[in-house]
Write a structure and sequence with these properties.
heterodimer; A: mainly alpha; B: 153 residues; alpha/beta; 5-stranded parallel beta sheet; 6 helices; binds iron/sulfur cluster
Chain lengths: 325, 153
């Protein structure tokens, strides 16, 4: 693959990093606003129109504050962990098709790279939590790893379903195979399992066990401050975008839509529009579950994933094999 | 005001600090009256999140430390620890008559007479307990330097 200046610009600016960081801020604002409206509050109001720049203010305020690195912490990981942690979802998002039916970077086995990104994010989170050497962070990392070991298998199984249906292992190939019939029609159970596993990956209620602020202070983020905290929070929102984008790509047809036009510019606009609408739809689904439910216990979460969702995902995979044949 | 503070980035920094106020609450031997008023300030009726005020779970994330209650002998060192864990720039708000000078507990054998004997305090909010409006008004005026806009209340 050749790195032309146009491709570099695309990766850094429009359908790449800047666009997704912007979406990350927008999603956090929407999440806070929705949660507030559900609870009969107003949510952020003062910062910008409708408080839309509240997450931006939070981010820059945090990045300007003093940074306290605990004495016993692992300085090397505390220094280089956050950039790596941030890089994981940012790298994954480059493989997601946004402005056209094929992504900026693609190869035949994208989906395996997505598996890697998903586990790498959790690995970095647990590494950062251990490195900060707080008592609460250590407890939280134990919970994080236990939760990870329970949701990983159903999540990966449900991600294989679109690959089986389309016979492709690249995200662009999966999107191309969905023209006219989105995979959510053939695999609604797979979609549901993926969304539930995504909630657990994002540590949102009802699976916010690793960051339960009523039990273990700030979860694995307890000891972070200043710049580190700003980037860790941004990365969590970017993972949010990543998982919403991934489910929109795998199950909802990505940038495919009902109307097609021939002009190049108009096609870019339409594809981006469809993709953003689907991404926001999935994000709203996650907000709705998140605001409505309370936290479950860790054993209940593990039991849910191992005894209910894994068999469901397996059945869905069997159905997909028959359908794809 | 220095030159740097008037440049665009300086104004942007000041704006970001004014619009994002994360508070951490310490109950230093209070009767719980003041704590309930703090919680009331976060509920739908007063909704502190409108101004970007958020209750954070860890002192390392906080900008403003809210202290309630008469800080007693046992609590002194803990309060100082929590204060030192908050990254700069930070503010301390003493809430309630107890935190200001002992309140109804004044004269008891183990009661410290006011939080400002232990850590530096930026703002005193009197009352037993103070109303949630008073809390919000005080915190926002402390951080932004101006009272909350009437239209936004
Ligand atoms: S000031 Fe009044 S309400 Fe507040 S802690 Fe003291 S006695 Fe309780």
């Amino acid at each position: 693959m050749n790195l032309t200046p146009l491709l570099v610009a695309e990766i850094l600016l429009f359908p790449g990093l800047t666009f997704f960081v912007f979406m990350a801020f927008i999603l956090e604002w929407l999440e806070r606003k929705t949660a507030a409206r559900v609870q009969g509050r107003r949510g952020p109001v003062v910062a910008g129109p409708f408080g839309i720049v509240q997450p931006v203010a939070d981010f820059f305020k945090l990045s300007m504050k003093e940074e306290i690195v605990p004495e016993e912490s692992d300085k090397f990981i505390m220094r280089w962990g956050p950039p790596l942690y941030f890089a994981a979802p940012a790298a994954g998002l480059v493989f997601v098709p946004v402005i056209a039916l094929s992504a900026l970077i693609q190869n035949q086995f994208d989906l395996f790279f997505m598996f890697f990104i998903l586990s790498f994010t959790t690995l970095m989170a647990s590494l950062l939590g251990y490195a900060s050497a707080g008592r609460y962070s250590t407890v939280a990392v134990g919970r994080l790893v236990l939760q990870y070991s329970s949701y990983e298998i159903p999540m990966l199984l449900s991600m294989i379903v679109p690959a089986v249906l389309s016979g492709k292992l690249s995200l662009s190939g999966i999107v191309a195979a969905q023209s006219g019939h989105w995979f959510v029609l053939f695999a609604p159970v797979g979609f549901a399992v993926f969304i539930i596993a995504a909630l657990a990956e994002l540590e949102k209620p009802p699976f916010d066990i690793p960051s339960a602020s009523t039990e273990i202070v700030g979860g694995w983020m307890t000891e972070f401050s200043g710049n580190t905290l700003a980037y860790v929070k941004l990365t969590k929102n970017l993972s949010y975008v990543f998982l919403s984008a991934l489910s929109a790509t795998l199950f909802l047809g990505g940038p495919q839509g009902p109307i097609f036009v021939s002009g190049a510019m108009a096609a870019v606009v339409l594809h981006t529009f469809y993709f953003t609408v689907k991404l926001l739809f999935v994000a709203f689904l996650i907000f709705a579950i998140r605001t409505a439910l309370a936290r479950v216990k860790i054993d209940q979460a593990t039991r849910l994933f191992w005894t209910i969702l894994t068999p469901l995902a397996l059945v869905q995979l069997g159905v997909a094999v028959i359908l794809g044949w | 005001m220095s030159q740097a503070a008037d440049s665009f980035s300086g104004r942007f920094r000041r704006w970001a600090r004014k619009r994002s106020i994360w508070v951490f609450h310490v109950n230093a031997a209070s009767c719980n009256g003041c704590d309930i008023e703090i919680l009331a300030a976060l509920t739908p009726r007063y909704d502190a999140e409108r101004f970007g005020v958020e209750l954070v779970p860890s002192p390392r994330h906080a900008d403003v430390l809210l202290v309630t209650g008469t800080v007693n002998a046992q609590m002194k060192d803990r309060l100082r620890d929590v204060y030192e864990q908050i990254p700069e720039p930070k503010h301390v708000v003493a809430i309630g008559a107890c935190a200001l000078g002992g309140g109804v507990m004044k004269g008891c054998y183990n009661v410290g007479h006011g939080i400002d004997k232990v850590i530096p305090v930026d703002l005193y909010i009197p009352g037993c307990p103070p109303r949630p409006e008073a809390l919000l008004f005080g915190i926002i005026k402390l951080v932004t330097g101006e009272p909350p806009d009437r239209r936004e209340e």
